[in-house]
């Protein structure tokens, strides 16, 4: 059931479009990646155990003295498909190297650690100080980034349609959040639970970027992967949480297929039942709730979504409606039944047709 798959930031439907409509060189690269990624998923599912996190979900952060710091190690694959990479490029506390991918990965892992600790008092991905490892320069012209259950892995992009995958801090927040989800609810990676999995990764990826930039909900662009496309692509990002379905419209990549309302829910067998497509619906709900609550989204709506993820009622097969009910309960518990925050959460899910 792909409960613990290899999570890639780039949806397979984009690679399929490139394989069909890209330049001959781009078609070859996309076909190679479409064949290679399922193999990586099989290895991931068969070898990686669950992250220990559930034992810490209710542990008081006050027990950690002094405040924790990340433990980062960035390795260099040197263009091979070896992960972890054979060479250590930068360790925790070391100075920048001048290699953009190495230094961006280091900073992105730190920004993600900072969000989870300072906003939610969570000590790393597992809640218990898990070291944060990453491998950069993975593969030749590899256009993707993924969390393999133990570490982040980044390709350098193909240079034709995609830049290096360390360029957007929200990509790192997104992928590392898959580890948080795996440690807590373990949302199964198919159909609605899988789309919810992808949405939660987008939500906290966006919050990592917003906190790093000091942006309020009103000032944020709500784009996932902005800056990843080269100038050859007619698009601003991989996804838009504010306006799902508008992130790109390109002759090669096609048009962003994400719906923003349950009326347009996509029924498909591809992409594990459309996990990267239908995630636009809960993404839009979070965006609406964050704007309605106002201020810093990681303090308002983000706090509700984080505590909902930790709620025992959110299990492997939770669907959109089930998660909406839990967020409503959590908002009432945190802010009061008749609070503006609780009303904003309920209205947001109603606006996208989930409740």
Automatic annotation (TrEMBL):
Q: Name one GO cellular component term.
A: extracellular region
What is one GO biological process annotated to this record?
proteolysis
- Give the matching InterPro entries: Metalloprotease_M4 (IPR052759), Peptidase_M4 (IPR023612), Peptidase_M4/M1_CTD_sf (IPR027268), Peptidase_M4_C_domain (IPR001570), Peptidase_M4_domain (IPR013856)
According to its UniProt record, the EC number is 3.4.24.-
**Protein family according to the UniProt entry:** Belongs to the peptidase M4 family.
Active site annotated at which positions?
Answer: 175, 276
Name this protein carries in UniProt: Neutral metalloproteinase
| Protein location | Secreted
The UniProt record lists the Peptidase M4 domain at: 99-182
The top EC class is hydrolase
CDD domains hit by this protein: M4_TLP (cd09597)
A Gene Ontology MF term for this entry? metalloendopeptidase activity
Question: Which keywords does this Swiss-Prot/TrEMBL entry list?
Answer: Hydrolase, Metal-binding, Metalloprotease, Protease, Secreted, Zinc
Q: Which Pfam families match?
A: Peptidase_M4 (PF01447), Peptidase_M4_C (PF02868)
Q: Where is this region: Disordered?
A: 58-97
Q: What is its main location?
A: secreted
Membrane-crossing segments per the record: none
Cited SUPFAM superfamilies: Metalloproteases ('zincins'), catalytic domain (SSF55486)
The entry's function note states: Extracellular zinc metalloprotease.
In what residue span(s) does the Peptidase M4 C-terminal domain sit? 185-354
Q: Per the entry, which co-factors are needed?
A: Zn(2+)
């Amino acid at each position: 059931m792909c409960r613990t798959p290899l999570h890639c930031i780039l949806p397979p439907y984009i690679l399929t479009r490139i394989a069909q409509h890209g330049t001959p060189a781009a078609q070859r690269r996309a076909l190679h990646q479409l064949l290679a990624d399922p193999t990586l998923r099989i290895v991931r599912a068969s070898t990686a155990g669950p992250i220990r996190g559930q034992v810490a979900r209710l542990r008081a952060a006050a027990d950690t003295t002094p405040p924790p710091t990340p433990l980062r190690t960035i390795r260099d694959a040197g263009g091979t498909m070896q992960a972890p990479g054979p060479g250590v490029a930068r360790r925790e506390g070391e100075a920048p190297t001048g290699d953009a991918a190495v230094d961006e990965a280091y900073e992105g892992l730190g920004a993600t650690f900072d969000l989870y600790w300072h906003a939610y008092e969570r000590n790393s991905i597992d809640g218990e100080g898990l070291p944060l490892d990453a491998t950069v320069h993975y593969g030749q012209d590899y256009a993707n980034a993924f969390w393999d259950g133990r570490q982040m892995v980044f390709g350098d992009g193909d240079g034709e349609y995609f830049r290096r995958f360390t360029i957007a801090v929200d990509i790192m927040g997104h992928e590392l959040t898959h580890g948080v989800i795996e440690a807590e609810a373990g949302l199964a990676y198919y159909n609605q639970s899988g789309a919810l999995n992808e949405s939660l990764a987008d939500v906290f990826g966006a919050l990592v970027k917003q906190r790093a930039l000091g942006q309020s909900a009103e000032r944020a662009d709500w784009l996932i992967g902005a800056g990843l496309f080269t100038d050859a692509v007619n698009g601003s990002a991989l996804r838009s949480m504010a306006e799902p379905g508008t992130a790109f419209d390109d002759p090669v990549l096609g048009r962003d297929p994400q719906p923003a309302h349950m009326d347009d829910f996509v029924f498909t067998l591809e992409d594990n039942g459309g996990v990267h497509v239908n995630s636009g619906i809960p993404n839009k709900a979070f965006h609406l709730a964050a704007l309605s609550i106002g201020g810093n989204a990681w303090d308002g709506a983000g706090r509700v979504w984080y505590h909902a993820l930790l709620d025992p009622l959110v299990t492997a097969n939770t669907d959109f409606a089930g998660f909406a009910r839990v967020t409503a309960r959590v908002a009432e518990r945190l802010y009061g039944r008749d609070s503006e925050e609780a009303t904003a959460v309920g209205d947001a899910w109603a606006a996208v047709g989930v409740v």
